[in-house]
Design a protein that fits this description.
The protein is mainly β and 339 residues long. It has two domains: 7-176, Cupredoxins -  blue copper proteins (Immunoglobulin-like, Sandwich), CATH 2.60.40.420; 187-336, Immunoglobulin-like (Sandwich). The chain has helices spanning 12-18, 127-130, 161-166, 212-217, 231-234, 317-320; strands at 7-8, 22-27, 31-37, 61-76, 79-86, 95-98, 102-109, 119-120, 139-145, 150-155, 170-176, 187-196, 198-199, 209-210, 222-225, 237-239, 244-253, 258-262, 267-271, 280-283, 285-288, 292-299, 308-314, 325-330. The strands form five sheets. Strands 1, 2, 3, 4, 5, 7 and 9 form a seven-stranded mixed sheet that branches. The structure holds copper (II) ion. Copper (II) ion binds at residues 84, 116, 156, 158, 164, 169.
Length: 339
């Protein structure tokens, strides 16, 4: 049952929830409403973008205020970049809902001088309303039903889309299946691959800016997971021996595919979409296209892929060498014990 689409170009309604960090309130007859203001609840970036996922709330209506800002971000160790963001970070914050939930979006353009917009791949919605560009200072509200499970890309769709994505305007929305995933996972993480095209700036020598020719030529300087090159080599994803691990992998691009692989393990299952009846079993590498996502499940099983370190990569190694390598640390490997 699809709820009617509501569009409102208002500022007042959005300001009303602007100061609210995260709370739930009960509305009789409609169930709980969860409200999150991503201007207040920023995604942790230290020591790395917080990839660990929490379960979705039980609220049937989930409301998100999303400020769009221009912020300096770090795309590789010591490399600062003039990012365009959802919520002040690249990638933007993770949105997690359940199939059948109503997702309400309050989008606010807090950037200076540039119109922006938002395109939820998890929505079935006319692009000329919900995805329209809004000027600095303006806001846009709309809602949709999360009809389809999976991990979906969300991005700015303002032309040139290539530039707005390359500048950092993307985030993931995870839609859990109505009755949950068939396999219980001990840990869940989100990984977003993307590519960056920095060049020196004549305005500020300490902050890089986007190189349009390199974007057009699809020749990135960095290909990364969760916004910064190699960050999970220094700060591995930590799991325990025996853990079943579920990875939600999304590829923002804008240009480079992800041949997603974990060195030293085999995926028990890959869900190319979110249909729980359509996994692929026993997979070594699975391609996540730009603008796409897939769900990966694996077990770090004693006697097989137990205690030790495992790299996650795009197996296109020219891209991996540009930053798309991280580590899953299982237990406390002996050679790590001194750290
Ligand atoms: Cu934009």
């Amino acid at each position: 049952m699809l709820k009617p689409l509501k569009i409102a170009l208002t500022a007042a309604g959005i300001l009303a929830v602007g100061a609210t960090a995260l709370f739930s309130t009960s509305l009789s007859g409609t169930g709980d409403v969860e409200r999150v203001d991503f201007g207040v609840t920023r995604t942790g970036l230290t020591p790395a973008y917080n990839a660990r996922l929490r379960p979705a709330s039980r609220a049937a209506i989930k409301e998100f205020r999303i400020p769009m800002t221009h912020d300096t971000v770090e795309i590789s160790k010591g490399v600062r970049y003039v990012g365009w963001t959802f919520g002040g970070t690249v990638p933007g914050p993770v949105i997690r809902v359940r199939q059948g939930d109503i997702v309400r979006i309050n989008l606010v353009n807090e950037a200076v001088g540039v119109p922006h917009s938002i395109d939820f791949h998890a929505s079935k919605i006319p692009m000329d309303h919900a995805m329209k560009s809004i000027a600095p200072g303006d806001s846009l509200s709309f809602e949709f039903e999360a009809t389809t499970a999976g991990v979906f890309m969300v991005h700015c769709g303002t032309p040139p889309v290539l530039m707005h994505i390359a500048q950092g305007m993307y985030l993931p929305i995870i839609v859990d299946p109505r009755d949950g995933w068939p396999t219980e996972a001990d840990k869940e993480f989100v990984l977003i691959q993307s590519d960056f095209y920095p060049k020196g700036s004549v305005i500020d020598s300490t902050v890089m800016e986007g190189d349009w020719d390199a974007m057009q030529g699809a020749t990135p300087k960095y290909v990364v997971f969760n916004g910064r090159a190699f960050q999970y080599k220094d700060a591995p994803l930590e799991v325990e021996e025996g853990d079943v691990v579920r990875l939600f992998v999304m590829n923002a691009g804008p240009n480079i595919r992800s041949d997603f692989h974990v060195v030293g393990n085999i995926f028990d299952r890959v869900y190319p979409g979110g249909n729980v009846n359509q996994p692929i079993d026993g997979v070594q590498t699975y391609m996540v296209p730009t603008g796409g996502g897939a769900v990966f499940e694996m077990t770090f099983e004693k006697g097989y892929s137990g205690t030790g370190n495992y790299a996650f990569v795009t197996h296109a190694f020219a891209d991996a060498n540009k930053g798309a390598v991280g580590v899953i640390q299982v237990g406390k490997p002996a050679h790590m014990a001194s750290h």
